[in-house]
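Annotated sample (chain length 496).
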Amino acid sequence: MTTARTYTAPTLPLPSHEGRAVALDDILAARDARAARQQAMQAAGGVLISLTLAAPGAVKRSPLLDAVFQAAQEAVENTIPTPQAVNIHIDDCGHHALYRVDGDAHEWKHAMLVLEAASPLARLWDIDIIAANGRPISRTDCGLLPRRCLLCDDDAKTCARARRHSIDDLNADIARRYRLHQQAEHIGVAMRQALITEATLTPKAGLVDASSNGGHHDMTLAHFLASADAIAPYLAACAARGMTFAADAASPAILAAIRPIGIQAEAAMLTATGGVNTHKGAIFAFGLTAAALGRQLAAGSSTTLAQTLADIRAISANLAAEQGTGDSAGQRAYRQHHITGARGAAADGYRLITAYALPAYQRILNAGGSERRALLAALVTLYATNDDTTTIARVGLDGLRTHQEWAKRLLADEATLMDEDRLSTAIATYDYDCTARRLSAGGSADLLALTAYFGRYFPTSFPAAQATEARSAVQTADNPNGIPATTPMHNPKGTA
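Output written by the structure step:
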């Protein structure tokens, strides 16, 4: 039996909460000074965005609170493209940032409310909007309840006045929220590395790598590296947003919450690549995974791959209704061949990875092989098992089946699989054919990147017998996706 794949990540140091206690008179004086700065900046007109922290107790500044404020600044400033004026004031009495902006005060309030709901850490941020006439725009003005207490569902001001919670408990919650922020950031960084690992793996057939552009005339390795850098912060944001659902069961509501982040990630990708679609599929797959993993980590201190994939299935439950409704390669493949593509892979909890690619990867590692050979074996396994809609768009369904048969033959050649040089040569030789036909296996590349991520951060040891069983299943099955290999081709042109 396989041991549970438990998520592992480095434990990052937590900034200290130690700081100088401030007297009440100093706090009141600081509040007056903050109001004066607001009035001075507002004299020039415009809407003011005021950012402070919910810092209970007499310590208003510490390394931990500095870190929380820095994260808040970055989030607010990423939301404000070009403020008219900025005023940042930090001392022992706390943190205060002022931004003067154009636009409608109610629209800015809505934008900041979205920001405050984006992560567990954002509950510590107090973002006020002051209209041009000097009137603050409250949550109740937007039809919302007052801010909730950090530790319970009661009104925050009521809890504060009644001193229902100890300062130690509140500070412990601040530390917990910052720890979750660290974990979300790490997820983004780790997923970026998985995308780079996939992009730089060489050789690959029909894909961009360090030595070839494969069947792609419009993209290079440099595009993929720039894209991975651009989308990583948004994958971290997906993880953070997933964390806000810790008290709820996984559901399509999480997908609705992260979709705007995915749209932003795609825009950042296109900006970084000059309009080249390098990672649209990966944004979808990794965004779902990040959100599911974030929810699991916020609900408990650790999680397993099985639990994370169960969340992905629940989050993706409504995706079937979207099949065939658009004009992407995947949606066309569904209409023409009933192949479910990226949406189906998510709804199935990435079974191709867990049932085939990960065992192939682990088998090589268990035999003492390198990570590179393990990834190459996983890639060939995905070639054999994945009904890649990108491949169908380029070479039609018959071309896909030919591609899958090549991979199955290679998987049956044990001597080649166990020799890194021979395996590399076989893939590189096949790449010439893929390049000539403009065959692309972009969907398999996305799954390989996810395999690399799972393999590193959900480690385990597969028994040799299980890995061999999975390999045999790949070689003998007509199609592990369950689509008959004899399905007629409905795309005679063979290209998108």
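Annotation: The chain has a mean pLDDT of 88.
Annotation: Residues 179-476 form one domain.
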